[in-house]
Amino acid sequence: KTQHQKWKQPVASVLEIGGVKIVKDDVVRDDPTNNVPDTIFSKLGVQLHRRAQHPIGILKNAIYNYFDVNYSGKFDKFDDLCPIVSVKQNFDDVLVPEDHVSRSYNDTYYIDPETVLRCHTSAHQAELLTEGHTHFLVTGDVYRRDSIDSTHYPVFHQMEGVRVFSPAECEASGMDATSYAAGDLKKCLEGLARHLFGAVEMRWVDSYFPFTNPSFELEIYFQEKWLEVLGCGVMEQEILKRTGKINNVAWAFGLGLERLAMVLFEIPDIRLFWSTDERFTSQFSQGQLGVKFKPFSKFPPCYKDMSFWINDSFTENNLCEVVRGIAGDLVEEVRLIDNFTNKKGMTSHCYRIAYRSMERSLTDEEINQLQGNVREVAQSKLNVVLR
Ligand code: FA5
Ligand code: MG
């Protein structure tokens, strides 16, 4: 047994989410078609968005409030749909092409070749439309293999919003239906931003999603950078058609709740949302939007560089998974700082790993131990050659 297994948390073996029972043995097994590690599995069922005292839950309720007030309760709300969904729900139903990168094992957690941990709440659009809902919000935990830094985490929360317009509503506007829906969507989300933040510096950026056209992203200025907080657009006609709506247009959005909560409460690092330290949790209370997070002291980061020759199957997401698996929330960032190919065609990468606890000072010994394990496991699992 290697040292790093000591840091692994015990994992519940039976969970119930939204009435669906999940048995761990059914989900995590030694199977090459399953890439869900225990650290990720242990987040299933935690549902931070359903805790009224947690920043994610407080934010969810504030957004509910905006929709209740502005649309007189017309939006149906879902926050307990099971995060384990079919490939069909997550990708096919929202027109993600067969060869799209998001379908790869490098980007998505697969339980088996037909079943994934949803990578977005858009996975529920089609079923809810088919059930006849025309105005709805879906909040849930979503899962992605991704890079590591202060605004990316492999488990985060999204809120999906969908509004279907009747043909009469569009006609009354005198505009073409798509422009009308796009205008309404932007007005709705700008109103939401004002409701949450008051005045804030934001901008619209044109974007692309397989399920909307046109598509946009909203960015907010935060910590001296533009931070992407949501994606949205006018729903592709094909999705509506398949759910039996031939004469309608609709808009849809997907909010990144951690990102919005970081701006709202001035939370500097996404890992804090998972902290059980009372110095974090006690700063927030139900219904309180105006609170600014007070860091309970900033501990120094420790940087460790690691250089190795890569092979053709190397990916940064795989490295991040190794680091996360060993260091857990003690890793703050994994960043490529050097990349070159020699005359023989061998490529070398140098990654800088930042270790920092949000809660305490780390000892040199502890960090060296972690880094030693990262080197060992990177070598054995990723087949890279350390330099
Ligand atoms: C989507 O997931 C689309 N489903 C959004 C959408 C819905 C578009 C409906 C159109 C219509 P994207 O991959 O950009 O899009 O993610 C949406 C938001 O999730 C991002 O803007 C960001 O705020 C947040 N997000 C993405 N990756 C991470 C991550 N690793 N950690 C934290 N937040 C993330
Ligand atoms: Mg995006």
UniProtKB/TrEMBL annotation:
It is found in: Mitochondrion matrix. Its EC number is 6.1.1.20. Residues 297-387 form the FDX-ACB domain. Residues 140-295 form the Aminoacyl-transfer RNA synthetases class-II family profile domain. Is responsible for the charging of tRNA(Phe) with phenylalanine in mitochondrial translation. This is phenylalanine--tRNA ligase. GO terms for cellular component: mitochondrial matrix. Keywords: Aminoacyl-tRNA synthetase, ATP-binding, Ligase, Mitochondrion, Nucleotide-binding, Protein biosynthesis, Transit peptide. One of its GO terms (biological process) is phenylalanyl-tRNA aminoacylation. Pfam families: FDX-ACB (PF03147), tRNA-synt_2d (PF01409). Belongs to the class-II aminoacyl-tRNA synthetase family. Its main location: mitochondrion. It is an enzyme of class 6 (ligase). The lineage of its organism: Eukaryota, Viridiplantae, Streptophyta, Embryophyta, Tracheophyta. It catalyses: tRNA(Phe) + L-phenylalanine + ATP = L-phenylalanyl-tRNA(Phe) + AMP + diphosphate + H(+). One of its GO terms (molecular function) is phenylalanine-tRNA ligase activity.
